[in-house]
Design a protein that fits this description.
4-stranded antiparallel β-sheet; globular; 11 helices; alpha+beta; 6-stranded mixed β-sheet; 10 strands
């Protein structure tokens, strides 16, 4: 029997990167892209590599290009770490894993551009292992287990936001209050109907890839040192997120644009933004959109008035710099074109 699971890309709307520091965020599913995992019983435990894990190249230039886009690691290490963490969890609950499987994966999520491609592979793998072995992990606790794969097993700095939205899907307001996290082992995860959102787009550029560890590892060390500017920023990001949540649930989603802009501007005061990533933001703002980073860099989420002509101008402007603009498909029954043509 084949078991097939998947997890989707995501875009952080507001609050990022406070999720790793007991802050608040709102994130949304981007079903335009996904990581897909297949499991089936086999004599030996086997992880089959994807094309991003290849070890043979036609030339030094081809290897260099591969590393520039994908980094030095593909998805196999993510799956191996997920298997290890899942096995640890099963031991803790007294469950013995007494049979083997082969795991295959594929993904079309743009790599290292802040759309949560790594956590999607881990989430899809964890879902597959749960189904294969008949292990139920409570939904509120599953994001934390997924996060531990990168944070504890691979020592990659990250926060809960990506894992929460990939487990819950749709649009989710997340409150990672310290006391609640300590008491319950998870935050407050509140779904928001996607219809409450204003018109949004996502724009990304593959050559602006930047791993989440670039942002989180530096920010975490500054947070741990108690740097006043960082502590104040985390507090402010949480406030902006709460304001955005309140506007959305009250039917005033078209008013969240200035809050998104403020989120990015505060980030830019604390963290160095590359010229290319800054251009992703500036293009949108010049053409009347509010823009925030969708993740760690390489992709942005923009809020517009939904005017088709404005979207075409935005798509053309992003295209000129080599970026692509899409309309995020949040729900399974999303209809219409996902890419705007200039």
């Amino acid at each position: 029997m084949l078991i097939r699971t998947q997890a989707f890309a995501r875009a952080g709307l507001i609050g990022n990167p406070s999720d790793g520091y007991f802050g608040k965020t709102i994130s949304l599913t981007v079903r335009n892209f996904s990581a897909r995992v297949t499991l089936y019983e086999s004599p030996r435990l086997t992880v089959r590599p994807d094309r991003s894990d290849r070890a043979e190249f036609a030339s030094f230039a081809e290897l260099t290009d591969e590393v520039r886009v994908h980094g030095y690691y593909g998805g196999v290490r993510l799956i191996k770490a997920t298997i290890k963490r899942f096995n640890d969890y099963c031991r803790e609950i007294g469950r013995v894993l007494d049979r083997n499987c082969t795991i295959e994966y594929e993904t079309d999520i743009p790599v290292r551009v802040g759309l949560a491609g790594s956590s999607a592979i881990i989430t899809a793998t964890m879902r597959g292992l749960m189904q294969f072995f008949g292990v139920e992990i409570p939904q509120p606790l599953l994001p934390g287990l997924v996060l531990s794969v990168e944070l504890d097993e691979l020592k990659i700095g990250a926060g809960l936001q990506d894992r929460v939205i990939q487990v819950y899907e749709g649009v989710v307001f997340m409150d990672f209050d310290r006391e609640r996290m300590a008491r319950d082992g998870h935050g407050l995860y509140e779904p928001i109907p996607p219809r409450m959102l204003p018109p949004l787009y996502v724009a990304y550029h593959n050559n602006l890839a930047e791993g989440t560890e670039v942002t989180h590892n530096d920010l975490r060390s500054r947070y741990q040192r108690g740097e006043a500017a960082v502590l104040e920023a985390i507090k402010r990001w949480a406030e902006l997120t709460q304001e955005a949540r309140d506007l959305l649930v009250s039917g005033r989603g078209t008013e969240i644009g200035p809050l998104m802009d403020a989120n990015f501007d505060l980030r830019a005061q604390l963290i160095q933004i590359s010229a290319g990533n800054r251009n992703l933001v500036d293009i949108g703002r010049r053409l009347g959109a509010a823009v925030n980073f969708a993740g760690s860099g390489g992709a942005v989420v923009g809020c517009t008035d939904g005017d088709p002509e404005r979207l075409r101008r935005l798509a053309a402007a992003y295209g000129e710099m080599g970026a692509r603009l899409i309309i995020p498909q949040i729900e399974a029954d999303s209809a219409g074109e996902s890419e705007v043509r200039a």
